[in-house]
Amino acid sequence: MLEALGIQQSAEIAYRLMLERPDYAVADMARHLGWTEAEVRAALTGLADAKLVAMEDESGAVSPANPEVGFSFLLARAEAELNQRRRQVEQAERAVEEILAGFADGGGRAFRHDIVDRIHGVDAVRERLETLAATARSECLSLLPGGAQLPDTMDASQPLDELALARGVRIRSIYQESFRNDPPTLEYVRWYCDLGGAARTVPVVPMLMVIIDRKAALVPMDPEDGRAGALEVRSGGLVNALVVLFDQLWESGTPFGETPRRDEHQLSPQERELLLLLGIGSTDEIAARRLGVSLRTVRRMSSELMSRLGARSRFEAGVRAAKEGWL
Length: 327
Description:
The structure is a single chain. The protein is α+β, with helices and mostly antiparallel strands. It has twelve helices and ten strands.
């Protein structure tokens, strides 16, 4: 539970035992946990680095430090890292939007054909994706917005994913949290994770994107019309910006199979994102589209959050959440 603060699970287990039995020495802890003394000392070293225990160099004795001091330091560091990741993601999104807007406005004149290529139509995009997936050597990264995936898309992807994983290609995909409500998509992700793929979820996936071997990326030609086609990007700087966007989302995501963690205010990542949307005055329709859920779900979540915050309107809930330090 404390991994988000940089505390490994073994260190957390040792720390909880120290709080319960402060009289235990290292040997007692090892006996109680069924670990070796070396394993206990490794966990304690991690706790000492996190300022949660004090270690005496000469005697080797350990004792819990004031948890208020240690956890305040860890929470402040985690919050600073989270804010930095959010800023980096926002900067990457703006860079991508500016470059794609410039390409669209200028008709692609500023780019050579071998750097950015237009692929028109859904069938042509799917054919190009199949070619890229079949030739991938090391890695395939995907952003998949919208919750439930189309059945024909999953049917087309399944043999490609299976062959790529068999070749040793590392596949990582980021889905919108709402996909957990769609059994076919859930089953597909479970299948490909069992084969060695990896998946995480975030409340909002900003765009559809596939990156192959960090050399080529496919993004929608028109974010509002997925059938218009795609842009295949091979510019090193732009592909790198897209990789940064993916990596930042991956770091903040919830691994598939785990329940999204609630923060100190008992907000899930999805509830936190909804509060941010409410705070800027987004309508229920916009919030539902961003989160990939139904209007009914957004209204239920909004009502629950308003009740918790004692707010009379959705906008007031967003404002109060900010004032209370929830955001």
